[in-house]
Design a protein that fits this description.
Elements (H helix, E strand, L loop, with lengths): L2 E4 L4 H12 L5 E4 L2 H8 L7 E4 L5 H7 L5 E4 L4 H14 L3 E4 L4 H18 L2 E3 L4 H14 L4 E11 L6 H9 L5 E4 L2 E4 L5 E5 L6 E6 L4 H8 L1 E10 H8 L18 E10 L2 E10 L1 H17 L7 E2 L2 H4 L2 H10 L3 E3 L3 E4 L7 E4 L1
Parallel strand pairs: 1-2, 1-4, 2-3, 4-5, 5-6, 6-15, 7-12
Antiparallel strand pairs: 7-13, 8-9, 10-11, 10-18, 11-12, 13-14, 14-16, 14-17
Helix pairs in contact: 1-10, 4-5, 6-8, 6-10, 6-12
Length: 351
């Protein structure tokens, strides 16, 4: 399987290329600036082929995707990059994955390209990263046999956030209203909720704020849930918003930063609750493991009809997460089921 990575000189793309090589693939690095791409992949020697393409030149994209089976788009803002790259992927019958956290981009991908992708027999899978597909799979796993639920709360804790240049550019570009799920439908968040959330150690009790990412869009496509909320602890948001905060620094031989994360998912039905917690390191590095694992499982597994899909629609969530745990990419707790007790509620909303 020939896999190309677009935006190959970026921070996340470097992790994706390294993960592909670790799994025995011979990836193609695609970017606009030859010198930047060459510099980014120099550490891999001749193992990575370089192709140059510009999003505003369809012919160059077609040449770059020639002979390719799958393209992974790592170049944000995806509001600008997704559409032209998906159009090229469809022309060349290349499966498309991206790692967007931009809700508007994921929504547009589903609305514009589900039909054309079905006609061409091409898979289009947006938001297959930490923000997006990971939360979708965790929520799907936490459903644990339920066909519907009253509430899903996803709370993310980061011990720090040193944003990449791409993250900063995306934040400046991504001005669309954020969406949550209310009464079973995606709706604009009018006033983000603040809450107190009791995370597992080492995070403990922290203030969180409602910050919906693309997992909201993905879950709304295939999970029957009345209300869904997405929270992030407030401390790393201050770092993200501070222009003086440095970018991520490598803290090990794999280039991962020292950042740690915890994701806590609660699914409620009447008085019953399912809960699952996962821990890991470096949201950019784990994104590479998520999207590459997804590509291998979807594109090397049983044939799927073409179309635009959320990860939770086309992947067995339990098997996927257990695979990441076996690779020691995450520490995954089993789903815990029980009754909701008023004194044990961990998220008290402050309106």
């Amino acid at each position: 399987m020939k896999i190309a990575v677009y935006g190959a000189s970026g921070h996340t793309a470097r992790f994706v290329l390294a993960e592909l090589l670790r799994r025995g693939h011979a990836p193609i690095a695609i970017g606009r600036d030859e010198s930047k791409v060459a510099s980014a992949v120099a550490v891999h020697g001749a193992k990575v082929e370089i192709r140059i393409a510009s999003l505003d030149a369809a012919e160059s994209l077609d040449r770059a995707l020639s002979g390719v089976d799958v393209v992974i788009n790592c170049a944000g803002p995806f509001l600008d990059t997704a559409q032209p790259l998906i159009e090229a992927a469809l022309r060349n019958r290349v499966h498309y994955f991206d790692v967007t956290a931009e809700q508007a981009s994921a929504l547009s991908t589903f609305e514009l390209f589900d039909g054309p992708a079905r006609e061409r027999g091409v898979l289009v899978v947006p938001a297959a990263g930490f923000y997006g597909g990971f939360g979708d799979l965790l929520a799907t796993y936490a459903m644990n046999g339920w066909t519907h639920a009253d509430h899903i709360d996803i709370a993310i804790a980061l011990d720090s956030w040193q944003p990449t240049l791409g993250t900063r550019r995306t934040g400046q570009r991504n001005t669309a209203p954020r969406l949550n799920v209310s009464n079973g439908n995606l709706k604009a968040v009018q006033a983000p909720e603040r809450a107190s959330w009791r995370f597992a150690e080492p995070f403990g009790s922290q203030g969180v704020i409602e910050v919906p990412f693309t997992e909201m869009v993905l879950m709304a496509r295939h999970l029957r849930v009345r209300e869904i909320r997405n929270y992030l602890n407030e401390a790393p948001l201050h770092e993200l918003r501070d222009p003086a905060t440095p970018g991520p620094l490598a803290a090990d031989d794999h280039g991962r930063s020292s950042q740690h994360f915890l994701v806590d998912v609660k699914v409620r039905n009447s008085d019953d609750e399912h809960r699952v917690t996962v821990k890991g390191r470096d949201i950019y590095a784990i994104t590479a493991s998520i999207v590459v694992e997804a590509v291998e499982r979807v594109c090397q597994g049983p044939d799927h009809d073409g179309g635009a899909f959320a990860l939770g629609q086309i992947i067995d969530a339990s098997e996927f997460l257990q695979a990441l745990a076996r690779m020691r990419e995450i520490i995954l707790a089993p789903v815990r089921a029980g009754k909701i007790h008023p004194d044990a509620v961990t998220c008290s909303r402050e309106m």
